[in-house]
Amino acid sequence: MISVGLIGKTNVGKSTFFAAATLMDVEIANRPFVTIEPNVGIAYAKKKCVHVELGVKCNPKNSLCIKDFRFIPVRLIDVAGLIPGAHEGRGLGNKFLDDLRKADVLIHVIDASGSTNEEGQPVPPGSRNPEEDLAFIETELDEWFLSIIKKDWEKFARTTDLSGKDMVEALLSKMSGVSVNRRHIIKALKLSSLENVKLMHWGEEGLRKFSHTLRVVSKPIVIAANKSDLPVSRDNIKRLQSKFKHVVPVSAESELALRRASRSGIIDYVPGEANFTILKRLDERQTKAMNYIKTNVLDVYGTTGVQDALNEAVFSALEMIAVYPVEDERKFTNRDGDVLPDVFLMEKGSTPKDLALAIHTDLGRGFLYAIDAKRRMRVGEEYLLQDNDVIKIVSSTARP
Ligand SMILES: Nc1nc2c(ncn2[C@@H]2O[C@H](COP(=O)(O)OP(=O)(O)OP(=O)(O)O)[C@@H](O)[C@H]2O)c(=O)[nH]1
């Protein structure tokens, strides 16, 4: 399962974002086993379900389908303690590093209204430039990556160069502490033009360049520009969007209110949608709250942004695609007759064999070929999976 790390300083609305993102009024019946720690919750990436395109009714098992949208579970980790100087042990020390290590992508919640200072204390709205909060996080992460790569570097570089070992393999095992994969290493080497330079010749500059690039490639950051409902946020958000990638206007408090109201049956609301329907007579306070959300958030930005931030992390920053494995390619079912039961998030560029391996190692090991159920066509190991593909795996090793 994809892990999304939630970072941000105190008082910007990180807890509100976490509460909103993990509150769904439908539970998955047989959710794949996940160890839930206090700071871990299940959130969802959302996309149109492929059942619409296929004209069938689905029977989701590992995900949810609400009003034609598939909600695909992701692990949301609340990474506490990322404050300036954290890499030197300030704050919670290294506990946050462990949480960060597990994250495939980060959502950085910032206060777009500029009403919290660098320590997270309230200041008059608009008096702080939220951009200042972006730089320190990047510095912290860069320093962390650099400290890992620098450890015993001289010896590592010499041994690897002289033994003729594969550079990618060696760097992969060296950086295993930050959970990077082979693709990240290859990309970072290329982007920092070091793929043909002996490790011994990298020098301080090369090390910095490589560890920074590796961090950017392996821990992409989505910026959740929170408190979008406050008018003072609007210009800040525009400026942030013109300067940085993956900036999503968010009102975590509005999303939390909508999900709570939906859970208690007051409104009908699908997370991430632009509208909600009032189901019951609202009291004065509720009417005021709903009007506020509509006028200050939905009418201005289209959505509250919580779901968009999760989607941006999964589908844009990580470039994941959704693939539906089935056992019967004609009926799109598993062996129990459930239609389109599961959906897997796969990296762009994955093959049917990668999908087989993601389902079960044995299935992958015995991979023979796959059938693209939509086109009713046999595809081989070289086929690149497409978003919304429905795939049957044919393997010599039966599933247990
Ligand atoms: N206007 C506005 N206020 C918000 C929004 N989201 C959160 N807040 C407020 O911001 C304050 C901080 O929210 P929290 O979620 O507790 O912030 P946090 O970053 O988790 O802070 P800590 O738990 O102290 O680390 C609270 O008063 C929230 O009500 C929002 O979308 N709009």
From TrEMBL:
The keyword Zinc does not apply. Residues 2-270 form the OBG-type G domain. One of its GO terms (cellular component) is cytoplasm. Keywords: Nucleotide-binding. GO terms for molecular function: ATP hydrolysis activity; GTP binding. CDD domains: TGS_MJ1332_like, Ygr210. It comes from the Archaea. SUPFAM superfamilies: P-loop containing nucleoside triphosphate hydrolases, TGS-like. Belongs to the RelA/SpoT family. This is Putative GTPase, probable translation factor. It comes from Metallosphaera yellowstonensis MK1.
